[in-house]
Each structure stands twice: as C-alpha cells, then as structure tokens.
C-alpha cells in the first residue's frame, strides 16, 4: 500500500507569489519513478503538489544556488549547472567533481541532459525568479517528480526552507538555520562594541561605467542587518528597483560620479566581472573621492556569496567577511 505524508511549502511563500500575480497554470501530481519504494511524501507548492519517493537517491537541481541548501542538509546533487560559476564556491564545502555539470539553466534547460542523469527528484526555479512556467513544470515532471522553488524575492531563508521541505529534511534545515542564527547573534554582540560598526554601510556592485547600490532586502543585505549593521539611505531622487510588488525593491543604479555622495562610511564591494572591473573603477580619480576609501573602510568581497548565494552556507560566508572587515576574532563570532 502506498503511504504518503504531506509537506507544504510555506503559505507565506505561496502568498507572495500570488500577490505578485506570478502564478499561472494548473497543478498535477508527479509519479514516483519505477523501481522506487511505494512510500512517498507529498510536497505542496505553487504549482499544486508533487509526490516524492522517500528513498530518493538522485537529485538534480537546475539552479546553481540550490546546491547550497541541498548540501547543507546532507544531499549532494548528482547534477547541477556547476559551469555557471566563474569559480566554484568554497562555501559549498563539497568538491566540484562530486557534481556532474548540467550546463545551462533557467529558460535554457536541457531536458535531455536532465533525463540522462536518471533523477528521482528535480528541484527547479523559473527564469528571473518568476513563477514556474507550466509547460516547463510538465516537461520536468515527465522525467521525474519535480518541485518548483520560489526565488521571486531575495530571501535566502525562504529558499532554504522550501528546499528543506522538498527534500523531506525540515528538521535538518531547522538545525542549519539555528546554527546560523546563533553565529549571527554572537557576531552582532561583538560588533556592538566596535565604533566603526555603528557607521552606515553600503553594499556596492560595480559594472563597467556604473554602479548599483544593493540595499537591505537583498540576500547579503539581510545578513548585514542580522548582525546589526545599518545601511546608508538612498540618495535623494534615487528610485529603488528590482524585486516585485510582494517582496519589495532592493537596489538602485547610479553613475560612478555619484559614488562619493551615495556611499556609506563602510563599503562592501564586488563585481560581476571579477577583479578587472574592480581594478578599473578603483583606478579612477572619482574613487579616491569616496570618504570610505579615504578612511580605509572599503572591503572587496566575493560576488558568488554576496550576490548569487541563496542559502545558509553563503550567508555564513558573508558573516565571515563581515567579521574580518571589522576585526572580530573567529572565536568571538
């Protein structure tokens, strides 16, 4: 007799997607792969529900950042888009060679390549963090039980929670979250005694010829506020963008000429294009006019964890960077 327990993606996540007007299509039940145990658990999500075999062995994730949360609860995917990383993140704490490369992701998913890995569970996200495409969901579900993970907002906690539910490892994910929270609390306590940690901060993403101020509602911004850091407010006339109606806006763009006015007293900076753009911008005269630069309070950090990370391991890596920036000893954070 088939036994099915039910796991639900949090109502708050579903509500956010619905509020943003992102959900379309109808739900369907996925069928466990042949040869698997008859015991399943049911995951309810934005597309309906999916029955997943309790004894799944081969998990494919189609979105790079999902590796973080899967590995955090002891599940190493058999395949993921590992080649999408410029440098495979060390914070995953797993060797790149342990995960086969799925190649492209998002709207460029290669269904044949996914099928060739013979998965018994697929975790996927939709392009640009929108709700899943019903046709894509149907196509993936024809290969194996498929669970969409909502990434419509910059919130690593919600992404990790959904993955914990999808993998039937909610208790393990709760333990991971508790460990992060305890570490953030310790670091916040240490920072409270440091004068520089009371200064307003900025999270700066550089592009050739322009910049983007990433605010509190980004993944890294949430980590920064978790430890008590306060953001420099947007400059007058700045228009926040990104995100959606439900999650809020989380960045604004500006020219390099406005950086001296816009940057906080402490700046964490990274670039999509690596050191090349950083070196180019830092060689410009306008860079030297930034008060944080003049005070020696600018810190280059990793793009993968600060911008692309969507899990507790990336968040913990950000805590490490913050501790180093403010000179907090490891045993105190």
> Tell me, what's the shape?
globular
Strand order in the sheet with the most strands: 11-10-9-12-13
* Mean model confidence by pLDDT: 86
Proportion of residues in extended strands? 15-25%
Task: Could you tell me the CATH topology label of the largest domain.
Answer: Rossmann fold
Overall radius of gyration:
21 Å
Number of domains: 2
Number of helices: 13
Class of the largest domain in CATH? Alpha Beta
CATH superfamily of the largest domain: Nitrogenase molybdenum iron protein domain
Main β-sheet description: 5 strands, mixed
CATH architecture verdict of the largest domain: 3-Layer(aba) Sandwich
Secondary structure: helix percent: 25-40%
- Low-confidence sequence ranges: 11-36
Helix/strand structural class? alpha/beta
Q: What is the distance, rounded to the nearest whole angstrom, between the alpha carbons of the first and last residues?
A: 50 Å
Word description of this protein:
The chain has helices spanning 11-19, 66-72, 111-116, 134-141, 156-166, 170-191, 219-226, 259-262, 275-282, 285-288, 291-294, 303-308, 312-325, and strands at 4-8, 40-45, 48-53, 59-61, 79-80, 100-101, 121-124, 146-148, 201-207, 210-214, 251-255, 266-271, 298-300. It has 333 residues and is an alpha/beta fold. It folds into 2 domains: 4-168, Nitrogenase molybdenum iron protein domain (Rossmann fold, 3-Layer(aba) Sandwich), CATH 3.40.50; 178-332, Rossmann fold. Strands 11-10-9-12-13 form a 5-stranded mixed β-sheet. Strand 2 and strand 3 form a beta hairpin. Helix 5 (156-166) packs antiparallel against helix 6, helix 6 packs parallel to helix 13 (312-325) and helix 7 crosses helix 13. It starts with a strand and ends in an 8-residue tail after the last helix. The model is unreliable at 11-36 (pLDDT under 50).
